[in-house]
């Protein structure tokens, strides 16, 4: 079977969508840091629609991998082409799939191999927008406060080695310094990661790093570059070998690096761009003055409930999200968590029916065609929980409201950190703070009661901040952890009369 490549596009089946613009004429106006599956299934697809709608060919993209070469190695022989497969279920429950070959990714650079090439691409005159999907851990910040960790080993290295950085802040700031020195225009830096006020957080991190480099650079960035906040939403499960085989068979050409996604897509972006932007509205993006209400909605309702589902589901031995949602007690718990504890913390938004939003979300989580692995969502909990669950906890405690279901989700994370589920199967703890968390758990185990164990563990400031000293929080989590450890996930869920509550 021939490899997917620009030369094979004319021979692809008629029901496969293909690029309709002249790829050879594309300029790389966008540099994307973190060219993983989510970017290729979300931002790049919206950009593809903008290119088709406008014909403005200034907005091709160059991707940057900050770690591994696998994406570059897979896509280079394909001329940057790859397939997006949107999967859902028909009315009879059978899976269905629509394919699109995406063409606006022109090249992929691997930062550890050639950091100077990355700096030069960021500082290239064609570059107007730098987008990021590097996950929470890529910001080298304190998750509890959002502040850049100047003691982080990567940050220390990058301050000392401006021509060979390793981290996102190092690459961005040193490249902006090159732009300033060369008299080039500023750029827009657009975070698309699941962080509260992600643009503001990115701006604070970049400016903190720049201040260590040069006060004049700090002033130039602050005055001229923009950092819009944004909210992104699409479920993108990890691609499997079976996915690759199935998609290649449908194409009649081998695609080594396709991506899978659900049909639903949302992207809300503050319309603050320093040097132009594509017409992303053609692909479903919504431009707003303030993204914060949308960010909060998504982080708390989608990501918060997703994390709760992942930790409870993983510990119960459920490998996929749809399997976890098929357990009535767990589905009812997630429904009640959103309705009774998360939704009351959200501001009213014009045109938003929260009941309909919740119902659609439950339907998305139940999509059997995605086979979304609970362990994928469970990764990097130390970076995710402060945004996804702890902010909601703080708001409810401040209002004097109960946090029982939120506390069970947090207790499930602590339970998960043991590395063994209730079936006896082991799982790796993939987290940038895994070693520190394991050490904290060992120390906590020396405490004589569950309450004291949780109090000690919650004192881990990088995750919990001042919340670890809140007696109501500690007591609620301790109650739920005690039930999890004695009765298991389904026993803990049985405590909540979710069926009767709606």
Strand order of the largest sheet: 5-2-1-6-7
Instruction: Tell me how many strands there are.
Output: 11
Measured by DSSP, the beta-strand proportion falls in: 5-15%
The rounded Rg comes to 23 Å
Give the low-confidence spans. Answer: 498-502
Structural class: alpha/beta
* Largest beta-sheet details: 5 strands, parallel
Apparent shape:
globular
Overall helicity: 40-55%
The average pLDDT value, as a whole number, equals 96
Taking the alpha carbons of the first and last residues, their distance comes to 53 Å
Number of helices: 20
Report on the architecture of this protein.
There is one protein chain. The chain has 502 residues and is an alpha/beta fold. 46% of the residues lie in helices and 12% in strands. It has helices at residues 37-41, 43-54, 70-75, 115-122, 153-160, 168-182, 198-213, 215-224, 241-251, 292-316, 321-325, 328-342, 354-365, 374-378, 381-398, 404-416, 434-444, 450-457, 461-464, 471-494; strands at 28-33, 60-65, 82-89, 95-102, 105-110, 129-132, 188-191, 230-233, 259-261, 266-270, 285-288. Strand 3 (82-89) and strand 4 form a beta hairpin. Helix 4 (115-122) packs across helix 6 (168-182) and helix 16 packs across helix 20 (471-494). The model is unreliable at 498-502 (pLDDT under 50).
């Amino acid at each position: 079977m021939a490899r997917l490549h620009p030369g094979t596009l004319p021979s692809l089946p008629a029901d496969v969508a293909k690029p309709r613009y002249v790829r050879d004429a594309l300029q790389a106006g966008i540099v994307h840091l973190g060219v993983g599956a989510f970017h290729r299934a979300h931002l790049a697809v919206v950009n593809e629609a903008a290119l088709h709608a406008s014909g403005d060919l200034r907005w091709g993209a160059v991707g940057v991998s900050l770690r591994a070469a696998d994406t570059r190695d897979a896509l280079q022989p394909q001329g940057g082409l790859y397939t997006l497969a949107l999967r859902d279920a028909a009315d009879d429950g059978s899976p269905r799939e629509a394919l699109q070959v995406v063409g606006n990714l022109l090249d992929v650079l691997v930062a550890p191999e050639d950091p100077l090439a990355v700096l030069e691409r960021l500082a290239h005159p064609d570059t107007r927008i730098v987008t990021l999907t590097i996950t929470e851990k890529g910001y080298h910040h304190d998750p509890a406060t959002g502040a850049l960790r100047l003691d982080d080993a990567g940050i220390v290295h990058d301050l000392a080695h401006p021509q060979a950085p390793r981290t996102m802040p190092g690459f961005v700031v040193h490249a902006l310094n090159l732009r300033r020195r060369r008299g080039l225009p500023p750029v827009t830096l657009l975070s698309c990661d699941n962080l509260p006020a992600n643009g503001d957080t990115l701006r604070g991190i970049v400016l903190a790093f720049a201040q260590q480099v040069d006060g004049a650079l700090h002033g130039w960035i602050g005055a001229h570059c923009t950092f819009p906040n944004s909210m992104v939403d699409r479920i993108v499960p990890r691609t499997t070998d079976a996915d690759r085989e199935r998609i290649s068979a449908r194409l009649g050409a081998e695609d080594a690096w396709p991506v899978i996604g659900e049909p639903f897509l949302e992207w809300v972006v503050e319309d603050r761009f320093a040097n132009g932007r594509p017409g992303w509205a053609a692909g479903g993006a919504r431009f707003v003055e303030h993204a914060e209400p949308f960010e909060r909605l998504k982080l708390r309702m989608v990501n918060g409930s997703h994390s709760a589902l992942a930790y409870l589901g993983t510990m119960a031995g459920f490998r996929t999200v749809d399997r976890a949602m098929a357990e009535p007690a767990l589905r009812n718990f997630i429904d009640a968590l959103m309705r009774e504890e998360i939704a009351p913390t959200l501001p009213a938004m014009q045109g938003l029916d929260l009941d309909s939003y919740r119902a659609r979300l439950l339907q998305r989580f139940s999509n059997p065609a995605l086979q979304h692995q609970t362990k994928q969502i469970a990764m990097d909990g130390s970076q995710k929980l402060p945004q996804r669950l702890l902010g909601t906890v703080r708001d409810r405690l401040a209002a004097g409201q109960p946090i029982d279901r939120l506390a069970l989700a947090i207790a499930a994370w602590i339970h998960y950190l043991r590395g063994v589920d209730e079936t006896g199967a082991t799982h790796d703890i993939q987290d940038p703070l895994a070693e520190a968390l394991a050490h904290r758990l060992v120390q906590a185990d020396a405490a004589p009661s569950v309450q004291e164990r949780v109090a000690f563990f919650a004192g881990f400031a990088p995750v919990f901040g001042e919340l670890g000293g809140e007696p109501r929080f500690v007591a609620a989590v301790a109650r739920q952890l005690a039930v999890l450890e004695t009765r298991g996930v389904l026993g803990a869920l049985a405590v909540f009369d979710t069926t009767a509550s709606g």
